[in-house]
Amino acid sequence: MQFTIDRDQFTAALAWVARALPVQGIDPILNGILIEADSSGQVGLSAYDRDTSASTTTHADVATAGRALVSGTLLATIAKLLPNKPITLSLAGVEVTLACGAAVFTLPTLPIADYPALPALPPYCGEVNAAEFAAALRQVVPAASTDATAMNVYGVQIEISRDEPLRIVGTDRFRLALRCLPWQPTSEIDTEADTDQPDTVAVRVDARQLEAIAKQMASAGGTIRLSTTPDAALLGLADGSRRATLAAIAVPYPDYRHFLAQEPGFTASVPVAALSEAIKRAAVFTERGPQNRGAQIRLKFTATELEVTAGFHDTGRGQETLPIQFDGEELEMAFNPGYLLDALGATRTPDAQILVREPHKAVFVHPLTGGQPEDHYQHLVMPIRLPDVPPGPAHHSGLPGKAA
Hints:
- There is one protein chain.
- With about 400 residues, the chain is an alpha+beta fold.
- It contains 7 helices and 28 strands.
- A hairpin with a 2-residue loop joins strand 8 (about 95-100) and strand 9 (about 105-110).
- The radius of gyration is 25 Å and the shape is elongated.
């Protein structure tokens, strides 16, 4: 195998597939990146950690076709350090040589016969705008669990339906985010057109991996082709020459829809930036800052003001008051400041609506546009029970997956 390729073109392809290299792997063969060159002038790169795969093809001047497996981390590091000149990569025996200008590197190959085959893309089910999909994930991922010991809520769930918008949902049992966005489905989710197949397929995958893939695909614009199997075992994404697959989480996801029922409640219209800054300032008096799970701030709602407080008289206390519009009676609640900041930041609008049903039930945070709440995005945050307020029955139900 021997080919010559543009340096930036090669490093961009390597950066794409390197995301599928294992962070901590016990199987050294999975640390490799597979390089395949064919006589038509196409060079393919791929990586696979048995859960996530990434592959791409790019054009090169191929002198000799062939295949090689080399250390992915080492190859990507070397490529980024090379001068901006064409790269010639060649395979001789059990070594791969990279030559770029006066720089020459030799890498040992890994046993290609032991490398597992990448999963094929599952049946195509539709397309979604890449930028909108990435933006939707940025709104949902902060609420998604990254705790691998709680697999019933781990990751984000993508709900793919022929007749409804794409739904993306994530929860960590203390908050829940749902984003709906338009997409263009195929006439059949399953290309085998089995009438017994469900109209909606829900596939749940690692949140951070999916967000990273979508972000990089969005940088090129265009659309993302989504694909999945009828049994929701695999999620595939493709945009032209780049492809990725994510293995689904097989543990059943909890039923979350009844938590989203819009029960009557009191609403407050709040300025997102001003309230976020007030929370950050008050959170100075919470132990280890706003992202500490045990930290809490208090929000006191009145008809015209929102009082934000944190801390205690003996350890220091922060307090700030903001003008708001609240249509209920005076009410005080406590929240983890980091969770509330994530919910407010995810609205991506100057103003937000906070819907309060009962002191111990989750509050809804909605983006406000033109004074009206947007119905395509919902973010729920569970309050922390205040010690001087008796618990109600709703306090024990919690969000999906939360222990009683």
